[in-house]
Input
Amino acid sequence: MLRLDSDYMAGAHPEVLAALTATNLERTTGYGTDPYCESARRLVLDACFPEGGRQHSDARVYFLEGGTQANSTVIAGLLAPHEGVLAADTGHIACHESGAIEATGHKVLTLPGADGKISAHLIDEAVAAFRADPSRDHTVAPGAVYLSQPTELGTIYTLAELEAISAVCRREGMPLFVDGARLAYALASPANDVTLPDLARLADVFYIGGTKCGALMGEAVVIPNPSILRHFTPLIKQRGGLLAKGRLLGVMFQALFTDGLYERVGANGIALAALLREALRARGYEEAAPSPTNQLFFTIPNDELEELSHIVTFEVWGAPGDHYTTVRFVTDWALTRDDIEPMLAFLAAR
Amino acid sequence: MLRLDSDYMAGAHPEVLAALTATNLERTTGYGTDPYCESARRLVLDACFPEGGRQHSDARVYFLEGGTQANSTVIAGLLAPHEGVLAADTGHIACHESGAIEATGHKVLTLPGADGKISAHLIDEAVAAFRADPSRDHTVAPGAVYLSQPTELGTIYTLAELEAISAVCRREGMPLFVDGARLAYALASPANDVTLPDLARLADVFYIGGTKCGALMGEAVVIPNPSILRHFTPLIKQRGGLLAKGRLLGVMFQALFTDGLYERVGANGIALAALLREALRARGYEEAAPSPTNQLFFTIPNDELEELSHIVTFEVWGAPGDHYTTVRFVTDWALTRDDIEPMLAFLAAR
Amino acid sequence: MLRLDSDYMAGAHPEVLAALTATNLERTTGYGTDPYCESARRLVLDACFPEGGRQHSDARVYFLEGGTQANSTVIAGLLAPHEGVLAADTGHIACHESGAIEATGHKVLTLPGADGKISAHLIDEAVAAFRADPSRDHTVAPGAVYLSQPTELGTIYTLAELEAISAVCRREGMPLFVDGARLAYALASPANDVTLPDLARLADVFYIGGTKCGALMGEAVVIPNPSILRHFTPLIKQRGGLLAKGRLLGVMFQALFTDGLYERVGANGIALAALLREALRARGYEEAAPSPTNQLFFTIPNDELEELSHIVTFEVWGAPGDHYTTVRFVTDWALTRDDIEPMLAFLAAR
Amino acid sequence: MLRLDSDYMAGAHPEVLAALTATNLERTTGYGTDPYCESARRLVLDACFPEGGRQHSDARVYFLEGGTQANSTVIAGLLAPHEGVLAADTGHIACHESGAIEATGHKVLTLPGADGKISAHLIDEAVAAFRADPSRDHTVAPGAVYLSQPTELGTIYTLAELEAISAVCRREGMPLFVDGARLAYALASPANDVTLPDLARLADVFYIGGTKCGALMGEAVVIPNPSILRHFTPLIKQRGGLLAKGRLLGVMFQALFTDGLYERVGANGIALAALLREALRARGYEEAAPSPTNQLFFTIPNDELEELSHIVTFEVWGAPGDHYTTVRFVTDWALTRDDIEPMLAFLAAR
Output
């Protein structure tokens, strides 16, 4: 059975696992103070600040175990107690993290995103409405902006869109935080024009996803200007995210940023998604979200979906009518062309 | 250099790593819903409830990534908003978790432990003092009891002590939570008379440590009577501790509870600690805590410690005078007799 | 200038102030343990449970200083850590309390209310959607229901509507919490068919507003079945709401529940609102919310509003176009027919 | 019966009540935006910054309803998420606020106070220990200092002591917060050499107590340099402390700072305490804390205490043996010489 429910279904990329195996019995200090984390941080910074210089030496990289942990720890660190975070109404922190942001004491202020994306205009409007509200002391102040690249619907922000969002955020003194849980698949998409250096220039905090992009687990949080989030290590510890054997994350990110592995991870997911997208479109199914990345959302007649369910697993996303279901198929670094062949064959048949 | 700073310095036990490698490219569902977690839960329950029956089928096992995460998530789940948790003043939650318990809104109510241990009597006194306080509505109510087996000083509770503590807790309706981050080393100590079935009978929640006992990371939280902590999964998710690739923890605990590996892990740490303890005593150093497990606390003249520091790393624990330092040496599953030989030789020399 | 911005603009009803003055130099114990609080509790219970009996003796009444404090303290007490509270999107806790609920760690789950009201059907749908969600462990569970009587738009729930909502809540084991900050004005409305005994029967927690209904400050929180919210006093203290001179609230609520004062307070606000409503309608202004209580929402041409603003103050509620503004006028116990005469005259003129 | 349990037993000073009565039916805007609060703020600033100038115009004054509310709101506003607050182990926030600080997510880091007081030296040591701790990222960082003037034991800090504490705090960048719930009684003590301008110069935040010093309720929080605590109003609202009829606090503090009332309030409490202290000492009872203010702590033989309990109420503070009890007597603005006469007579008898 082909399993396309999500991109966290397999273990680690073989090169990542090999790195873990090779270093397994070494003894290092804990909590991210080891040489592997140090080396991985440097590799991540090299990718984000290829020109080196002051930015490269000022910026900080922290490794956390997972996305919800990264999101709630970063946001709790960025906000003052009276502030909330702006996010798309489909944003992961708004929908799928069991109230993790609220558990840190902060409200998620949702914006009506389009295809999972917010915009400089929506942020602008929200800030203006807050400013104009005579009872704004009784309202939650927008204190930071959260977005995902790619979004929960697989769509991506263009460079122009991110430039505009970043400009509003800086004008308003609101940090911009980019959740890159699936960043490898955005970077590898032919539709993408946003590079790691762009993110490092435009975001105030962002993370490079490992869990869904070839590692067993782990996200690399990059803070270009660390004055925005001082004392992050005790915050990670306090929120339960400081891995005792922190070097595992260093070893894995070192592997991901060696020999272009992070690019290869993304490229594999994107290539297989492209094949499936083509086949689903050719079959005449309607695309429910214009995703150019590794998540595909299609609306499929229920009888055909039933047949499909014998060869592939997926997530149900909604039911736009009695006879149709919208589902999500997700590809990743671990799948091969052979793996998806039965599904391509099914779609081509008739 | 021999590294004895802590027991989280190496990766995973080779049998654990082999299990991860063997299953690496399989695709399973996430967040602990996979067959490996299912199997590991059964193995853990078999060890805790060897007679099976109702208790075996009622009890629940959850896998979390680390100790601070397990402590704060469990305690936040056990306490009502007005309650705090009783713990030794040397308890890990009181000292070394960056205020993780307070970050969930609860006070740690410290008791003056002896050698890292609290007692039924101390708990009794604290509850009685709270009850007798005419302004107890202005005081934090003790709502649960936390202790570690072994403690942060390597000492262990006897069965009689745990029986007494458990009895007080049940009389008072306060759940007893046992932190077993290093449980393998307590279970393997010749001084120990507390078994896993004893813990499962006497504690209301406890965990079986993986991070320090052979796994890359992970703790198995056992809840004998799950009515005490319903809806634990969303709480784990909310606190950022629900591993997307949850099956990793299942695979690792399955390995740890196969072929007696958890016992072997503990036995290795205990055997090497016994050799070192003997040598340190023979050398005439004073033992700073009567630890029968894998942590050794000795007070050493500074000039000799300086020499030692050329062959072994350790943690400094305190300075009971200008010429002496108390240090901690920790053994674990990953060390061999050969590894510690230079230190034994140094101690025997003169 | 006539001030109709809100119903908290004057001090206390003269009978309430007289009671405070008469008892001012008495010395009593603090924090609500005094005889005045005891007496006021009994009077409140007499009004809620006129038939006495078990319910009268079981129920509990607590006095808190204000509405946001009551809302956040009650809701924090009712919810488990993983739960959120259902409320109308116009609900006070969702909009105008600076994120007080989120500051206690819980999400406000908003429902698309109509005229400020939610319904049994909307609650039902929300619960069903949560139940049906395969990833509900990653979603915030609805754990309680919040509504206001009257609502923030002045509308009121009918007895039938409340019966239906209460039935859903009990079926689902979700406590129903009714915010009665302006309850006097609901009770006095000719459109109302919900009595205090009805509320005591249908709600699990509710409060009888004092701040906006004749007291200097204070809300009487009624808990018909106290097992739902044990240990409420330390929670009030912890959240900063336990007035040292708690007897002030007892003295004031004793006065409000003596000689039908609470009814008279409501009746005055309602009678004056009726006169103004009639005059505003007669003038041809459109009613923006069908409020039968003491808040009036009307859409007024900007040029006429400019003229009105010379004789009356109000709150701006919105701007449904370039030439119109929706405003709110609020009456209360402290205004007289003479006070509003200039406004009536203005409206009748032309 | 003479009631000396505490200083919150009577209502408001007659001049304060007269001010409330005189303004009762006026209609003003809410939440502290009214002219009375404005005027009271100016009077408070005049008392704190008699020389006017930049400090007078920069400083901010906020009125909150009570002490626990002020403490938890200020401290939550001052601390970063990973920080805790240093306080005496007898400090009100450590002992008698039901975990209010912890409920905002922060640990109270206690120092072993002497007679209720901490010192520059103790703070220095705590900071040095934190700095020297190699695992300080796992420890709660001291982020602010809390002390009470007078303390919970009635003792007061000298100007030299406060200067030293303030100097350490500024050197370390830790705000100093002074709880002045009973400040009138410190200011009026003949032993005192700390003025309001001294506090305004040495503390970063402090409050001038109203609840125990002549008002029905209320504390005036003074923030000399408001950059330390921006956006305090939404924080007060969020924590439930923003009184709708905020003008009540303005009216009361206006009265307290008119015609030297705040001084008279303090002087009355101090004068009566002096008489009682003298009589208790003359009787031969041992003073349990060297309090020069309005709280008296004496250790009394149980048989004599039993007799005393027929004419006066008090709080029991401890039992330093089977035959003795330590109790607290508290005087205030509302008592007269006539009120305490029976107790003086009893003590003089024999």
